[in-house]
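thoughts on my protein:
***
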Amino acid sequence: MLKEFSLSGNTALVTGGGRGIGRTIALTLAEAGADVAVAARTLGEVEEVASEIRSLDRRSLALKTDVTDSVSVNEMVSYTTNKMGKIDILVNVAGISGSASLDSFSDAAWNRIMKTNLSGPFYCCRAVAAQMLERRSGRIINVSSTSGTKATVGGSAYSASKAGLNMLTKVLATEFASYNVCVNGIGPGWFETDMTRAFLEKPEQRMKIEGMIPMGRLTALRDLGLLAVYLASPASSWMTGQVIYLDGGETAMFL
């Protein structure tokens, strides 16, 4: 491995780390040398991921956390810091989707999506920032979506939450730049996850999605993990305030 991509000696905290994108990113960061704490609402899932990380001879914690609750987030960060010494890398993956026409979108549904997808990362960044700024070193990676930059029917809450997360990423990047803390985002396109599997399992729907992608195919979740390693590593020390879309070229036509 090129030394600039090594995460040896670093500790990462990954929210939404029990499955899908979060699980893959957590495991790939561990492969690159990081100790990794994984957090989610379902403890059993993150315990399995933590066990896999330990099998790679890395330290790991499994944490039950509700990112929509700032007290829970503060406790997560405090506990991780006490047990693992520091947090060098924060990856905000926890998120939910939801689609409905405006006239049928309830207050509860809107608030649930906004609190999970936008308030949650805000709480996590705020809780971790103090120690990163004090050390004048750190990486924050916010997992957004191509929906943060393109409109889809029924996606008023989801798209707005991800667009907000993109701007939060840019604002924090400018605030933290002089402290050598880099803040970037990853905007995944279509990947097969628990959130999308039922939709993609229907051949006609999968064919429609692949037809929207210039490369004409989907790819493995591991690609997201590898991008996260780059953004977490010294190799990206001059990159901040960027949202990188990993989507097979889907957004290239209108960005």
User: Anything to note?
Assistant: The CA atoms of residues 176 and 182 lie 7 Å apart. The first strand starts at residue 11 and ends at 15. The first helix runs from residue 20 to 31.
